[in-house]
Specification:
single chain, alpha+beta, 6-stranded mixed beta sheet, about 20% strand
Length: about 190
């Protein structure tokens, strides 16, 4: 069923108590905002190739998401990937192959678009978040719309960069988490 505009822009109540933690990060990523790194697109391509090799025909789409996908946008040094599969509920088909490709199954969020999160956070590895979604996820479309808007709207890209830096600074001063940092950016997004 196609995703509607109302699903894309509508509010979604986040309930952290419903998140199912499968494992935990071995290395916590920094919330520091860095200047754009010309290596980010190549890092994404390397990750994309590993995922394609592991999952092949199960993949409907794989996209570089998040701030590192926007050239000239300062970002955390984390590559975000939106991976859309034919059936996100069929974990038996993709969990083991992704783990064998080096990604740890971190959490499951059935109440939030059936989201699954895998990470690469081994010591000395690049930080990578692989967000796994089903074909009807409005969140994937929301990510693309936001990325594409930032690509074509320099004033909003600058505003978002400013908000990101302020959120990172406030989060660090308060000893907050990545979730705290993300919440501080939400109104701008």
């Amino acid at each position: 069923m196609p995703v509607t505009v109302a699903q894309i822009i509508g509010p979604h109540e986040y309930k952290p108590e419903l998140v199912e933690h499968i494992s935990f990060r071995t290395v916590q990523p920094s919330i520091n905002i860095l200047e754009p790194n010309p290596a980010w697109p190549q890092r994404y391509e390397e990750v994309k190739q590993r995922i394609q090799k592991a999952l092949g025909a199960l993949i409907l789409d794989i996209v570089h998401a998040g701030s590192t996908s926007v050239p000239s946008l300062p970002a955390k040094d984390i590559i975000d990937v939106d991976l859309t599969l034919k059936d996100v509920m069929d974990e038996a088909s993709y969990v083991k192959p992704l783990e064998e490709a080096g990604f740890r199954f971190l959490l499951r969020e059935p109440q939030w678009h059936q989201h699954r999160l895998f990470v690469e956070d081994w010591p000395k590895a690049y930080h990578v978040n692989v967000h796994v979604w089903g074909p009807d996820s409005s969140e994937v479309i929301r990510h693309r719309i936001f990325r594409d808007w930032l690509l074509k709207t320099p004033a909003d890209r600058e505003l978002y960069a400013k908000v990101k830096r302020e959120a990172a600074k406030q989060t660090a001063m308060a000893g907050g988490s990545m979730d705290d940092y993300n919440q501080q950016k939400e109104n701008t997004i």
